[in-house]
Structure formats: C-alpha cells, structure tokens
C-alpha cells in the first residue's frame, strides 16, 4: 500500500508531493491533463512563498526564471499618473513575477530529483474511505483503469475538485456578475521593466473599466486583464477559474480596451493566448474528512487582487506536508493533523474577505501610502490556534509570539565557519529547531545545561529536534548536541528582542512554542503533544513507514 496519493499537478500539488518527499514520505501524483497548460495564469510570487522555496532548495531557480515586480503605475481617469514603488529591502525577498507554466516546470523538475514523476492523463474516478486506508479508482486516457489503496489522499485538483466532490464537502460562495478576459501580449511602450500598470475609469456603483498589465520575464510581454465586452460575456455560468469553455478575446478586442483607457494608446501585438473567466469567492466547509485532505483552489477561490491565490495554496501544502509525513512515519500523534484545518481554513477565509473588499474598492483606495506588507504574506500568523503554545508572558511585545513567522537575522557567526550566516541558514531543514536566544554571552554552565537538555530531548523525541544557541558577541563553546552561534552584529536581538527567550521553530518556519527557558515545563508538554516517543520511529513492524 502506498502512503499518499496527490491529485492534481499544479503548483499546489507539485509542492505537496515534493515536500512529502523531502520529509521522507513517498507518494504518487496524478493529473487528468495530458500536458501542463501553457498559460501564464498566476504570476505574482509573494515574499513568503519565496521563503518557502528557499527552504525547499529551489528559490534560486525560481528567481533566475522570473523578474522582480518593482512597483505599480496607476492611470485613474481624471487624476495624474502615479507610481507606487515596492519597498521590501528589509525582507529576505521582494515580489517576483513568474508565469505559472514556469513555476510548474521548475517544481516538476525538483520533484523529479526525488524520483517522482507526474502520472498524466489519469483521473480520479472514485474514492472510498475505509477504516485504515483509502481506496481509489484511477481512469487513464487510454481507457484502462486501476484500483489502488493509499493511507492518505490529498486533493490539489482545483476549483472543480473531484476529491472535494467525492467527500461531499460544500463549497459555498458566489461569483461576481461580470466576466473578465485575459491575454498574453507584447506591448510597445516605455514602461520600466518590472513595473506593473493599471488604467481605470471609475464607474459609480459598478466595477471600474480597467486595463491591468503584469510584466512577464520576457522583455515587452505582459499578462493583461480587463472586463469582457458584452459580446463575449455570455450570461449564466459558474466558472470558478481562469480557463473557460467560452472563446477568448481577439487581439483587436484587447487593443480596443487599451486605446480607451491608456493615454498613449500603445500598440499590442503577438497574442499568444487569451481567455474569458468569471471571478468566484468560495470556501470549503472543511479541509479534511478523516484520511483525505484538500488544499489550494480545491479549498478556497477568490479574486486575484494582490496575487494571493497560488501563494495561499502553496502554503497550504507547505503547512500540511511536514505534519502528514511525521504522522505517517509514526513520529507524531495523528491528532497533529487537526492543526491543518485549524490553521489554514481561517487563512483562506481571510484571503477571500480581503481580496473581495480590495476588488470591490479597486481604484477607490484611501489616500496615503499603501501598506507595503499587506500582500507579502509575511504577517500571516497562527497566534491563538490550538496547536501553538505561548509561555512567554512578560516578554517584550515586539518579540515574535507563538504562531508568528520566525523572522530572519543576518551576520551570525559559528566557530570554524569563515563567513557570516543567516538565521534561515540555521533553520533550514525538516526538523523542529529549538532556538535558545541567550541575549548575552552566557557562562559555560548555561551551555552545559542546554547540552544536557538537548541530549535528553534526543532520547525522548529522536532526530526530529535540533537545539541551537545564539548569544551576543563571538560564538560560545560548542558542546555535543548543541550548535552555537554569535550575534556580533545584534541582528538576532533586533528581530527577537534583547531579553533571553527560547523559540521552538517548526519545519514550516512558524513558532510553535515560546518561553523564557528550555526548562519551562510547557516546552516538554508541547513537544509531547506533537511527537510520539522516539522509539515509535523504529518500532513499526507493519511496513507502513517510509524508509
């Protein structure tokens, strides 16, 4: 019996499969399409998704294939043009523009390095949950069929998800009454490379007339979007996504909108593809039914404003994969899987609400400088959810709390390493990392005590936990079981506060526990809730673990 079936080989499914493999769990991944779609549907990659890709080991490849989105030029009828530049230099990454077909190609290549290939032309035809497994029927394009059994199935198969339908999970919501159209075109103008553009004519009590151009890596090429003219917008329909059965607009129809809304009336040419679509806003009632999960557009769909859709789905997969791998390997309690819906469904609901509000108020934003972090997903937090614990009462309010993203810090030094390191270098990997911030150079006894704790934790929880100590000044002595770093430049103290504190950073880069000391009983209680005793990693004799 295989461990996991991933249904859908878009960015979310490919991320899910690759992350399961990186965490030591093999899977199969299927997609009903014979070939990936060649359309640049999703483009924007948020700074948080780039951090995810860095942890996966593929950020450089993605950056090399894309271009940085440096800002937005706005033409609002009746107002002078305005440039808003993205100022994200204090973050590890900016906003990247990368066509979805390139994202999928690079993720598939990455997955292939684990020896896993997408099985194409394969459709999930039936799904039956049983007491200990999930039985599915897979239909192939050549007319053959296969019955297979898996311990878990994850549906990453889009807005019309066969997995969600098989589970009977309601997908309630509504659609905007108007239709939109997209195109991939070359535009002859002087817009700086890396700048997006929007041209709007506000209409009272209705959506504005619009022409939006997002730059693609190829010079002069843009993905453009706008309202569809009446002759193309067929009535009815509940289309959830960008692709539809309606014929896409012709170049002349896109040029007509550009001429109407852009002062310079630039020439558009070389239309490679176009599409008509309707924007829907829907949220699945549940992200899980027993042994089956859904992620990405199968769980939530919303307006594309702010480029949140694909990124939210990728982070669904990043959240679920490490938990699922630990449980399937017997290293974590099955109850840990409850945290997936508890953490990610509120994120989906919030994205739907925010993107709906942004879409309905598009072009009518309040004056002043826009919130530069609002669409970065850096501020996303799981504070207050059931599977994070905070014992850090009294710590500075600016210190990251349990549930927050663990921020990066530069300039760390380790004995024997001749170059400075980032905290993200230290956190990289598939383990939980206990980060002890000593705030000042500690005594040898402090490190000795921490090393004793680390050895005891290894006995209790196995190799799933690493212990790291960071202190001001030069690196401390490095005993067995603890990696020590110096924070000579004070960057870690700036990010994590000047007080001594301890943070348990999860494999997805969020803080699962926070307290004043590793001696806090709350830490062991939290670890004991997440992990099975270490012997469970070795005592499975039923062949169900992945070796």
Keywords, please?
12 helices, 547 residues, 8-stranded mixed sheet
Q: Main β-sheet, in a few words? A: 8 strands, mixed
Secondary structural class: alpha/beta
State the shape: globular
Number of strands: 25
Stretches where pLDDT falls below 50 for ≥5 residues? 236-245, 536-547
Question: What Rg is obtained from the alpha carbons, in whole angstroms?
Answer: 25 Å
Give the N-to-C terminal Cα separation: 14 Å
The total count of helices amounts to: 12
Q: Helix amount, in percent?
A: 25-40%
Overall pLDDT metric: 90
Task: Estimate the strand proportion.
Answer: 25-35%
Structure notes:
- Helices cover 26% and strands 27% of the residues.
- It has 547 residues and is of the alpha/beta class.
- Strands 1, 2, 8, 9, 10, 11, 17 and 18 form an eight-stranded mixed beta sheet that branches.
- The two termini are 14 Å apart.
- It contains twelve helices and 25 strands.
- The longest helix is centred in the middle third of the chain and has 23 residues, at 338-360.
- Helix 1 (11-22) packs parallel to helix 4 and helix 7 (309-328) runs antiparallel to helix 8.
- The protein has helices at residues 11-22, 47-56, 59-65, 100-112, 162-167, 251-261, 309-328, 338-360, 423-427, 444-461, 491-496, 521-530; strands at residues 2-7, 27-31, 44-45, 67-68, 71-76, 82-85, 96-97, 119-120, 122-129, 134-140, 145-155, 171-188, 195-201, 209-215, 221-227, 267-284, 288-289, 292-294, 300-301, 389-391, 432-437, 465-471, 483-486, 501-505, 511-515.
- The radius of gyration is 25 Å and the shape is globular.
